[in-house]
Amino acid sequence: MFYVYILWSKSDPDRYYIGLTSDLRARLKKHNAGEVSHTSKLSPGSSKRISRSRKSSRPSLSRNI
Q1: Which string of DSSP letters, residue by residue, matches 17-37?
Q2: Which of 51-61 are b and which e, b meaning 16 or more Cβ less than 10 Å from the residue's Cβ?
Q3: What order of strands is seen across the sheet that includes strand 2-9?
Q4: C-beta neighbour count of 30 within 10 angstroms
Q5: Dist. CA 57–CA 10, nearest whole Å
Q6: 32-61: pLDDT as tens digits
Q7: pTM score, two decimals?
Q8: Residue 4: how many CB atoms within 10 A of its CB?
C-alpha cells in the first residue's frame, strides 16, 4: 500500500509539501522530527497532514508546471 500525502506548515500557511510513502506514520514522525531535508527548515512538530490517498500500487506521478 502506498500513500500520497500533503503536509501543511502551521507556522507558514503558504508552505506545503507533497510526498509518497508506504509507511505513513513513520514518514510523518520523520517530518515532524526534522529528519526530512525538504521539511527540516520548518519548526519541529509544525507540519500537519491535511490530505492523503491510499493506493494498492505505486502511483505514476507527473508534475505539470
Answers
A1: EEEEES-HHHHHHHHHTT-ST
A2: eeeeeeeeeee
A3: 16-21, 2-9, 47-55
A4: 15
A5: 31
A6: 888 888 877 765 555 555 666 776 666 665
A7: 0.65
A8: 16
